[in-house]
Amino acid sequence: MADFTENPAPPRFDERRIGERIRELRTARGLSLRELSGRLEISASALSQIERGKMRPSVTRLYQIMGELNVPMAAVFGPEVSAPAAPDAYTTPMGEAPGPRWEPGDAAVGRVAVTRREEAATLELGHGVRYRRLTPGPVPGMNYFESVYPPGSYSSQNAEYVRHRGHEIGNVVSGVLTVDVGFDTYELRPGDSITYPSTTPHRISNQGDRDAVAIWLNLD
Hints:
Elements: E1 12-13, H1 15-28, H2 33-40, H3 44-51, H4 59-68, E2 122-124, E3 130-133, E4 142-149, E5 167-174, E6 177-181, E7 184-188, E8 193-197, E9 202-205, E10 212-219
Parallel strand pairs: 1-2
Antiparallel strand pairs: 2-3, 3-4, 4-10, 5-8, 5-10, 6-7, 6-9
Helix pairs in contact: 2-3
């Protein structure tokens, strides 16, 4: 039975840990700081500040970085733990589970993974926007997050329009989100949904006076 008792806040990944992870992924792919910053069309100094935890990336900047590194956004949380051998369904005690451990590519082969509310990691990005991962493990081609946009916040550093690979599907849970896609503006209230190709210039903002919470599904 699910436990709905109050739990402590989930662990947060601060700018230093985010930067360290970006640097790990970049070096693992043999990319220099200058090469990656060139692909992102930003200065090497700006990327260096992000990697050293001196600058917090915006939501869209992080998506661009992960896209250029050819890894899902969830990779910023760190490598997943390999799963042990599959337990015998007839000998595992009822109520016990192997825990939130996944092997690469196991998302669609019947394994079960559970992450409790207090275990779900949260990224705090530019403008105070918070992203909480909703999947217990990696799911190929998909990123599933809860976002919280404080009043006056934007998905990009300077409210600019950006684009990256993939497709986005969002559903507003509370508050009001303004989504600009191309030349059109959409004001989304609780229960409203939107979908658009991430390759179209877009930005997300909260023009209201209270936090806006939404659930996002991003497909690579």
